[in-house]
Design brief:
Number of helices: 17
Helix content: 40-55%
Distance between the termini: 88 Å
Radius of gyration: 70 Å
Largest sheet: 5 strands, antiparallel
Strand order of the largest sheet: 6-5-9-8-7
Shape: rod-shaped
Structural class: alpha+beta
Number of strands: 20
């Protein structure tokens, strides 16, 4: 089965479980770290801001103390050196103990500057601290009685005090932060321990999809959540198990339907509403000689599997999808190899779970064998009917022949018996003898027709092609025709359409037989009218035509097709009225066809008929064509008919005494002695 199936349930479930696993692990397993890190990230800027603010306040306080100290020192020095003319010794003595001052300069009244040495202060802070700390320089000028005093505050001592203060603050805040974060960490760890256990349980659930129980410990809220999660996972496990069972059942059902679909002996295909093939079974692929069995390789709309245009089929499919109905019809498909198949196509639309038309199902049933069987049955029935008709015709023929034979035999026997009457006159005797001769010739013609029919059915009827004088042949035919026409009161005439060949290639005896039959029928079926024979030749087609027309009873159009069948006459009344065996026209057409020609007929009921005999003439390129009638003597000028004289003895052998006596009588008339015997022993 060629179909497209997406197993979205299992695929989506696995993806969802994997996604859920990753999300659960990240959200719950790293929750403690995330809370701690967030607290650190929030607390550190606050701590740094607090330390900076405290250092700034302390620096302001130290600066204020420095300023106050300078003012105090300046007032004290000013008082001590008021009465001194030279305050330098006093300043030097003060500088030895002034650790708060960095520089002391005294400018005397003469404008000279004297530097007073001070006690150096040891540096406790690191070098980088001086770069990041802005220390304002404090200077103070104090006027004296004997000059001016310049004082500068000690920066190193200021930085030492500021560094020591900052260090103490940092240590205290760090210790406090460690205590805070430790407490926070252990508080989070204790508070979210159940969540960690739940995360581990959920991870195991995702891996083996089995039910589990989350420990119910911790705050009441978490106990409620744990209980709900346990129930939810248990219910989900049951649903997954049921889903797995349903999925296996669905897979088994799909496999069964696939096997059943492919096992169908008739071609079946499925299309969607867009006209694309969704599926087809193996029988459909074999029927259309297709090798593709994948859904993505299926023929697209408009692609025909045969040479027949598929536009009409596509439009019909769209109409079925729109109308949501079904249809059944027959169609002949022409395939790419030229073969044709008759199909019975059944199509029906189907719907999806929402009731919308989803496509159609098509079933193709090959009717070719059935059509051939029906045709063969009709042929057999026709053959049987033909055989029955032939049997009936033969039965009728036997009856007709029996009647035709009995009639002349009755005349022959009757008139022969009257010849034994001694009182009969000579005139009656001569008329009786003529009747006997006429009846005998008629009987001879019937027997010849029956013999010719047996030769035709056995395939032994042969014709001989010899050089024949056309006008001599026509002379013999017209002589007999005129005699028959005169006895029936019919006028007979012949028309020559010149030019005509002097001689043709044909079988003269069979040609005469055909002409005798056609002309004889025309005379027989014409009462008081006329019969005409028209002769003309077509040199290009090398054929000669004899058209026999009459003014007789004519033939109905529906009876013309029966004329050239054996044992058949146009109507049953014809046999009763005119006699005949019904073989003449059949034998005539058969003989004409064997001589390379045919016989055709046109007729009007009540007005007459015209039979046209076409015969092959052979090569005419060296034959003389005449424009006038040539008599037999003109055909053989200078040739005289010799007087027949015979002498001698002849042995006549025949098992019939009457035949022997007849032959011996003819021989004695020509002067030949004869001896007769029954056989050659």
């Amino acid at each position: 089965m060629c179909y497209e199936r997406h197993n979205t349930t299992e695929c989506d479930l696995d993806n969802y479980m994997e996604y859920l696993n990753s999300r659960i692990t990240w959200n719950f397993m790293n929750l403690e770290t995330r809370i701690t890190a967030a607290s650190v990230l929030i607390f550190i800027p606050i701590l740094m801001t607090l330390i900076g603010w405290m250092n700034h306040e302390h620096a302001n306080h130290l600066q204020q103390e420095r300023n106050n100290y300078l003012y105090t020192v300046a007032r004290a020095l000013s008082l001590q050196t008021t009465q001194d003319i030279d305050p330098l010794p006093t300043l030097k003595n003060f500088g030895m103990y002034a650790t708060e001052l960095e520089d002391i300069h005294w400018r005397d009244p003469a404008g000279r500057t004297h530097a007073v040495p001070t006690t150096a202060t040891h540096r406790d802070y690191p070098g980088w601290f001086a770069y990041i700390t802005t220390v304002p320089t404090t200077h103070l000028n104090v006027p004296l009685q004997s000059g001016e005093l310049q004082l500068s505050a000690n920066t190193v001592k200021y930085l030492n005090e500021l560094w020591n203060y900052s260090t103490r603050i940092a240590m205290l805040t760090t210790f406090a932060a460690l205590i805070f974060f430790s407490c926070l960490y252990f508080l989070i760890r204790y508070t979210y321990a159940p969540i960690r256990l739940a995360s581990q349980a959920l991870e195991r659930y995702v891996q083996d999809k089995s039910a589990f129980k989350i420990p119910e410990s911790g705050p009441p809220e978490w106990i409620t959540i744990a209980r709900a999660l346990t129930q939810m996972t248990a219910r989900t496990s049951k649903l997954l198990e049921r889903l797995s069972q349903n999925e296996r059942a669905l897979e088994d059902r799909l496999n069964f339907q696939k096997a059943l679909f492919d096992a169908l002996p008739v071609p079946v295909h499925i299309k969607n509403v867009q006209g694309q093939y969704i599926a087809y079974n193996h029988a459909w692929a074999r029927f259309y000689n297709l090798d593709i069995l994948n859904a993505e390789d299926l023929p697209q709309p408009g692609l025909s599997v045969s040479e027949t245009d598929s536009a009409e089929e596509d439009e019909l499919d769209r109409q079925l999808c729109r109308a949501a109905t079904s249809t059944k019809y027959e169609r002949t498909l022409t395939f790419k190899d030229g073969t044709k198949k008759d199909l019975l196509i059944t199509k029906s639309s189907f719907t999806d779970t929402h009731g919308e038309v989803a496509g159609l199902i098509g079933v193709h049933i090959d009717l070719s064998a059935l059509k051939r069987a029906e045709a063969y049955a009709r042929h057999v029935e026709y053959q049987k009917s033909s055989a029955d008709a032939a049997n009936r015709a033969k039965s009728n023929f036997i009856a007709h022949v029996s009647h035709e034979v009995r009639t002349p035999l009755t005349a022959i026997i009757g008139f022969a018996e009257t010849l034994l009457d001694h009182d009969q006159g000579m005139t009656d005797r001569i008329e009786g003898i003529r009747t006997i001769i006429r009846a005998g010739k008629h009987l001879h013609q019937i027997i010849n027709e029956v013999l010719d029919l047996s030769k035709i059915e056995s395939g032994k009827l042969e014709v001989e092609t010899t050089e024949t004088q056309l006008f001599s042949l026509l002379e013999d035919v017209t002589a007999l025709a005129k005699l028959q026409a005169r006895s029936n009161g019919v006028e007979f005439s012949i028309n020559y359409e010149y030019p005509l060949p002097v001689k043709i290639q044909c079988d003269p005896m069979r040609t005469k037989q055909i002409l005798y039959n056609i002309i004889g029928n025309a005379i027989k079926f014409t009462r008081g009218g006329e019969v005409n024979l028209r002769v003309h030749c077509n040199r290009d087609t090398q054929r000669i035509y004899f058209a026999v027309s009459d003014t007789g009873v004519g033939i109905a159009s529906d009876q013309i097709s029966k004329l050239f069948q054996p044992f058949v006459q146009a109507e049953a009344s014809t046999t009763r009225q005119f006699g005949g065996t019904g073989l003449g026209l059949y034998l005539s057409r058969t003989l004409a066809q064997k001589m390379g020609g045919d016989i055709s007929v046109t007729s009007t009921l009540g007005k007459g008929s015209c039979f046209t005999i076409a015969l092959a003439t052979g090569a005419l390129w060296n034959v003389f064509f005449t424009h006038k009638l040539i008599t037999p003597n003109e055909e053989n000028p200078g040739k005289s008919i010799p007087q027949l004289t015979l002498s001698g003895s002849v042995l006549v052998v025949d098992d019939q005494p009457d035949n022997r006596r007849l032959v011996e009588l003819y021989l004695r008339k020509v002067g030949v002695q004869s001896v007769g015997c029954e056989n050659g022993e």
